[in-house]
Each structure stands twice: as C-alpha cells, then as structure tokens.
Amino acid sequence: MTLENKQKEKNGFTSSKLFKQKLQENSVEKKDDNGAVKKRRCFVSVNNKWRQLWDYFIIFVAIYSTFMIPISLAFNPFKEVVVNEDGTTYEKTADWYTAIDTITTCIYFADIVVQFRTSYINNYGEEIFDLKKVTKQYVISQNFWIDLFSLFANPITDLVLPQVQFLGLLKINRVFRVGALITQANMDKNTKAAMKIFYFTFLLFIYIHLVGCMWFLVVDTNADKERRWIPPYDFIDYTKSHFFEDEILRRYYVCLYYSVLIIGGNELGPSSDLELFFIVSANLIGAIVNA
C-alpha cells in the first residue's frame, strides 16, 4: 500500500470518526464514564409517535380558539350581567368560558415547554437533540414569539387590561401546523394533494370567519349611531333596519355573508374612515387570496 493510499485511508477514518462523534453529541442517548447508556430526561424526538399526537391535540385546541376568540371579541356573547345588592350592575365573563379559557392557556403554555424539549431536523437532514441548539432554534424563530405573546390573552389579563385579549388571535398560528403534518405524512401523492386542498379550503373559511367578526367589531365601535353602517340590503329603507338589535347568531351570519363579498371586492358602503380603511385592507388581502 502506497503512502498516498495510507494517507487517504487515515483521512477517511478520521472524517468517519468525527461524523460519528457529532451524531453522538446530538443523540438523545449519551453514555456515562462506565459506558452505560444514559438517556436525557424529558426530551423527545420530533418523529416520536406521542409527539405527533400532541401536535394533533394542539391543532384541535387551536381550532377551538380560532373560532371562539374572534366571536368573543366581536359579539361578546359570553358576558353575563350581574346585579349587586345595592342594585348596580356589572358585566363579567361566563364562568364556563373562563374555565375553558384557563385550561387552553395552560395547554398553550405546556406546548411552549414541549417545543423546548423536542428535537429538530437541521439543513443537513440530521436530527438535533442538543438542548442548547434546540433552545436557540426555537427562540430565534417567529413561532416562539407568536406563541409567547398569545399567552398574554388570558382570564387574568382580561380583568386588568381587556385590550390585550386581541393578542389571543395569535393562537391561530398553531393551526398552520396542519400544513407541516401533511407534508411530512407518509401517504401517496393523490391523498396528500387532496389533504392540501382541504387544508387550504379550511384556511379560506378561517379568513372569512375572521374578517366577518372583525367587520362587526369595526362597525359596532362607531360612536355616531345615526351614521352607523347597515347591511346594503337595508339601503332601500334604512329606518327599518334592525341589524344591531338582531340575535347574535343572525348578526354573525350576515357579517359572514358580507365577508365573502369582501373577497370578491364588492361594495359594502362603509360610513366611517375606520370602516373604509378596513374594507380597503380586506379587499387587498382578498385579491391576493383569489390570485
């Protein structure tokens, strides 16, 4: 064997040794001084079955938040009027909704903890288990900050600073995990394509739902009751419009209907600058969705 071949063999052995050492450093299993396998506690692989089931559970909870939070912000259906002994009244959120909101907040907090203890796949296709690298990877991502700020919307802050509840809309970000799960799913192309079509259709409905709820919130905040927006079908005789006195469910359906029209760029007759700005923004986003 020539000196050149020996040198190549040595370099190849060294590279192979370094690669194995790198994998061992990133591995979920480490060996102690006696050579026994030592597992890291509370650390899970991104490909673990239970970890994937957790993602499905979080998506289910996020779907609940996606529909309930906008309705709560816009129509306020979960408020109850409480009468004091002296005859004065005040509003408070229904106990059942507060309990569910508290539970979901705890679940979202637990999800952040799980993210810190879950491996990830780097650009080279390697699964990284190193705690420092996993922490850095999650903290520098936008998902961490979205997940963190969404926690500020909870029953406690609702009592002190109700305006913060709008941050609860950030919880919708977790619904986007469905796209990643479909991409990683082990299924044939036709099934995966059908799942993606269903996923994008679902996102479209979420967009319509959000626009409808936010549209009612915008028009309901108009202090000038005489110039407040009414549905265009009431333009013939606006004096007979009872839109804001209708039941919550009907108001929601009407706003959902006009939310669909916004995507198509239809005229809604905004009556204030805020309404005009909202319609322009919604129409632009709707044009992008249609494209």
Structure description:
The strands form three sheets. Strands 1-2 form a two-stranded antiparallel sheet. Strands 3-4 form a two-stranded antiparallel ribbon. Strands 5-6 form a two-stranded antiparallel ribbon. The protein starts with a helix and ends with a helix. The chain has ten helices and six strands, in the order H-E-E-H-E-E-H-E-E-H-H-H-H-H-H-H. It has helices at 3-26, 49-75, 95-116, 131-139, 142-150, 155-160, 177-184, 189-220, 248-263, 273-290, and strands at residues 29-31, 37-39, 79-83, 89-93, 120-121, 127-128. The protein is mainly alpha-helical. The longest helix is centred in the last third of the chain and has 32 residues, at 189-220.
What is shown here, in short?
With 291 residues, this protein is mainly alpha-helical. It has helices at 3-26, 49-75, 95-116, 131-139, 142-150, 155-160, 177-184, 189-220, 248-263, 273-290; strands at residues 29-31, 37-39, 79-83, 89-93, 120-121, 127-128.
